[in-house]
Amino acid sequence: MLGPESRLQMAPLNIHEVLEHIRKIMVAAEPERIRFHRDYDPSIPDMTADRDLLIQAFLNIARNAVQAIDGEGEVHFRTRILRQCTIGKKNHPLAVQIDIVDSGRGIAEELAETIFLPMITDKPDGSGLGLPIAQDIVSRHGGTILLQSSSAGTTFSTILPLEST
């Protein structure tokens, strides 16, 4: 999605600074309709990643969360440390899980199976590219995005290894 020429610009970063940047953008865009909450694990160490690309990935996920909410609602940003986590076929001693949870309508089961494919959307004005781009960015960092959805809302869990990829 990002093209073969784009290289990751890896540098140390604090994942909470990235999430706070996203949260502030979203609060400015939806100051009254959506309440944004954060539940951060302060024990998560800095990681090595491409800050700009992670901002793009989490911004895409957060936008989807807001768009899934009709009327007023809530979006939660949550981080947790994972130990001995397997991503794909590789075991990682430490990983970080970043959850973006919305109180929206949920994703239809038949759509959930293909939601990370390009051009798949349930929004009339959506491009269907936000989540595939986010998944591509996260996978290039050695991570994955998991989805849990019900009529009570949706959780996108991004899991990223904390060691260099």
Rg of Cα set: 15 Å
Termini separation (Å)? 19 Å
CATH architecture: 2-Layer Sandwich
User: Any idea what the shape is?
Assistant: globular
Helix-strand sequence: EHEEHEEHHEE
The CATH C-level class name: Alpha Beta
Q: What's the count of strands?
A: 7
How many domain modules? 1
Uncertain residue segments: 1-5
Class based on secondary structure composition and strand pairing: alpha+beta
Name of the CATH superfamily: Histidine kinase-like ATPase, C-terminal domain
* Count of separate DSSP helical elements: 4
Proportion of strand residues: 25-35%
Notes on the structure:
- The chain is α+β, with helices and mostly antiparallel strands.
- Helix content is 28%, strand content 34%.
- It has four helices and seven strands.
- It has helices at 15-29, 51-67, 109-112, 130-140, and strands at residues 11-13, 34-39, 47-49, 73-87, 90-102, 144-150, 153-161.
- The strands form two sheets. A five-stranded mixed β-sheet has the order 2-4-5-7-6.
- The longest helix has 17 residues, at 51-67.
Put the structure in a nutshell.
The protein is built from four helices and seven strands. The chain is α+β, with helices and mostly antiparallel strands.
Please describe the structure with a list of short key phrases separated by commas or semicolons.
two-stranded antiparallel sheet, alpha+beta, Heat Shock Protein 90, disordered N terminus, 165 residues, 28% helix
